[in-house]
Amino acid sequence: MDAIKLPQIKMTSPSDIVAYNKTSDLGQDSPPISNYPNTFMENIPESVLINLLTTVLQNDYINFSIIVGMDIYCEDNEYGGDEDGWDELIIRSLNLTFTYEKKIDKFTSVSWCQDGDKISGTNVVIKNATLNFKYKIDQNWTTSSTNSEIRILINGMEHTETVKLSTANTSFQD
User: Fold this and answer.
1) Whole domain around residue 170: which residue ranges?
2) pLDDT tens, 5-50?
3) What stretches of the chain show up as alpha helix (H) in DSSP?
4) What element of type H or E holds 5?
5) Claim to verify: residue 98 and residue 127 sit in the same structural domain
6) Domain-terminating residue out of 43, 68, 103
7) Rounded to whole angstroms, what are the CA distances from 124 to 115, 119, 127, 154, 156?
8) Rounded to two decimals, what is the model's pTM?
9) 3-class state of residue 1 by DSSP
10) Count of structural domains within the chain
11) Looking at the structure, do residues 88 and 123 belong to the same domain, yes or no?
12) What angle do CA 166, 172, 173 make, to 5 degrees?
């Protein structure tokens, strides 16, 4: 049986078979069947595959294995033994295509801290202060994360203005 397996957490534990091809008559003598050209594998439903991949990636999203191989089982068709000889056992092609969406926890944040020069002198009164910065995003956040925003904290106090990433675009803006 040809099979594609997704190993569980450790390579020593059982694997889940996600695709297979199990012949019932390959190698029979009467009538002889010695060739199975371009036979496709049976796949598990997409939703089951998604659940399996999600489980594997939740455990280790950097390294995981996909095993592609053949489990060959030959049974004697005649009393006294039947030799089955193979010239080629080939997995002719394999196409794996993944699309995924990274789940980000609701309260994930990124911090950037910058200390400016100290204002020195006596009796200094600041009459006006302006904070300018440029920002851009690499994808449309309108649908990706509608509530994401940039918040400014000065001396631990949240500034009243926020920047909603749903209104940002891929060009730098003030």
Assistant:
1) 105-174
2) 555 544 445 577 777 777 777 767 777 777 777 777 778 888 888 8
3) 46-59, 141-144
4) strand 2-7
5) no
6) 103
7) 19, 8, 10, 19, 22
8) 0.43
9) coil
10) 2
11) no
12) 70
